[in-house]
TrEMBL record, chain A:
Lineage of the species this protein comes from: Eukaryota, Fungi, Dikarya, Basidiomycota, Agaricomycotina
Complex formation: The glycine cleavage system is composed of four proteins: P, T, L and H.
Subcellular location per the Swiss-Prot or TrEMBL entry: Mitochondrion
Cited InterPro entries: 2-oxoA_DH_lipoyl-BS (IPR003016), Biotin_lipoyl (IPR000089), GCV_H (IPR002930), GCV_H/Fam206 (IPR033753), GCV_H_sub (IPR017453), Single_hybrid_motif (IPR011053)
Entries under CDD domains matching the protein: GCS_H (cd06848)
Species this protein is from: Somion occarium
Database matches in SUPFAM superfamilies: Single hybrid motif
Cofactor requirements of the protein: (R)-lipoate
Assigned keywords, A-Z: Lipoyl, Mitochondrion, Transit peptide
Entry-linked NCBIfam families: gcvH, PRK01202.1
UniProt KW Mitochondrion keyword: yes
Protein known as: Glycine cleavage system H protein
Gene3D superfamilies assigned: 2.40.50.100
TrEMBL record, chain B:
Matches recorded under InterPro entries: aa-tRNA-synth_II/BPL/LPL, BPL_LPL_catalytic, LipoylTrfase_LipoateP_Ligase
Lineage of producing organism: Eukaryota, Fungi, Dikarya, Basidiomycota, Agaricomycotina
Protein name: Putative lipoate-protein ligase A
Similarity comment: Belongs to the LplA family.
Domain BPL/LPL catalytic residues, every copy: 56-239
Alphabetical list of Pfam families matching this protein: LplA-B_cat
Pathways involved: Protein modification; protein lipoylation via exogenous pathway; protein N(6)-(lipoyl)lysine from lipoate: step 2/2
Protein purpose: Catalyzes both the ATP-dependent activation of exogenously supplied lipoate to lipoyl-AMP and the transfer of the activated lipoyl onto the lipoyl domains of lipoate-dependent enzymes.
Top-level lineage group: Eukaryota
Amino acid sequence: MFSAIRVASRSAASARTFRKAIPVARAPWSTGFVRTLVTKRYTQDHEAVIFDDSTGVGVVSITDYAQSSLGDVVFVELPTVGTEVAQGDQIGAVESVKAASDIYAPISGSVEEVNGELNGQPGLLNKSPEGDGWLCKIKLTDPSEIESLLTEEDYKKHCES
Amino acid sequence: MLRACVFSTWRSHSRKRGLSTAANNTLSPHHSIYVSNSSNPYFNLSLEDWLFRHKNHKEPLLLIYRDVPCVVIGRNQNPWKEVNMVASRTTGVPWIRRRSGGGTVYHDLGNTNFSIHLPRSSFDRHATAQVVLRAVRSLGVDANINDRNDICVGKDKVSGSAYKIVNNRAYHHGTMLISTRLDVLGDLLRSNKPTMETRGVASVRSPVCNLQQYEPSVSHEGFVEAVIDSFRQEYNIEDSTHTVEENVNTLGIDYIHKGMEELPRWDWAFGQTPEFTYNISRTFDWGTVTARIRSKHGIILNCSFELPDGHQSISDDLVQDQSRQLEGQRYGFLDETKEGIQRMMEGPGAEIWQWLKMEMDT
């Protein structure tokens, strides 16, 4: 859909550091038999993904840092449920007062659900970017892709660079 | 004629000053100050995006350009709501969807665009507006900045601003009305569709004026120099000004080339339109019909009709047929070769179809 943009963001993705997934939280329902790991990773374009390995689904959001530099969000364009997306594809757009920003797919997969609340309340992106203001849920085609994303520590460094 | 004349003045002006030209070698995105000699909006917008994504993200960059007449809408706007399509067609002035946010503006050679790129971490809309404000004041115009970070003289706007933020980079670009044809601007930006309700971003209409109304000596060349001086001072830059030509070398840059191809394509220009509904009514000899068209990303999602009471001249089947035929079609680009359409082209059916087609075309 946005070929030029895609090329640019893919090359950015390939430059990302490859790191082993580190569990950041353990779901309370995990038992001794099923070990559920929830991993949170970031992209250079300021998206965050919370990946649950028991469902294979990643919840995509923009980071708190992203919302703070955008200012008051007035419009959010979300992808359509069922769309197959590749890592780096543009899947949406955010606009704050006169500032446009693009949302790229952090991982490849199919869009399972979008946060319809954002249509009526785009301000949720400012209030709770990584919580109630989540953008969409993507069922990952290749869960190992999550490991190619930035860890929290790497992401912090990226923001400061 | 006038256009060509103004353009050549600037070209000879820049040569006289001995500015370096990228005409004979490959353009580098690593300079700090660029002035485009092209007035092609597709080229200039793509050049801007290329610089935005290729310059070292930590260093400030300034690009200045002018375009031949065109209407430029914001990234998340509805062209049917913002642009007077009839005026655009009759004047031959195209409209273009840009990549930054904000509202709709009009460009011609009497308007000069500035674009200031900075690291996301130090990006501050107010600070970049001040850089341009200082330039305008140095030309003898007592301008100010309003609460939307636009530059005004008195209550009239002379400059509109918009921003783009991606990864660790941000830009603030804006227009500067020096001697723009404000009558043409008004005709093109008046779409008059109060019953079109659109998601996305609506333009905030403001009274505008030209800098020359306040200071007749202000010129494009003078403004360019003033902005460059102000930018150099603000960011301590000593780099010389690089003029950019639209030629084989710059058009050969793959990213620029692809950007120029993408801007006019349906997928970008129309296909990025946020969801909207349009309620319209028309009284025919046989009664009044109300249609409600819902469209998203340039595609008609559905169209429902309200028919006159006790309508005998028109059957429910016909209206359902029309709805079915409209569904999934591109708004404003109805394909009439689709199977079954010719069957409806009689009597009231044809009248409704022609009416909808005309409404989508304005």
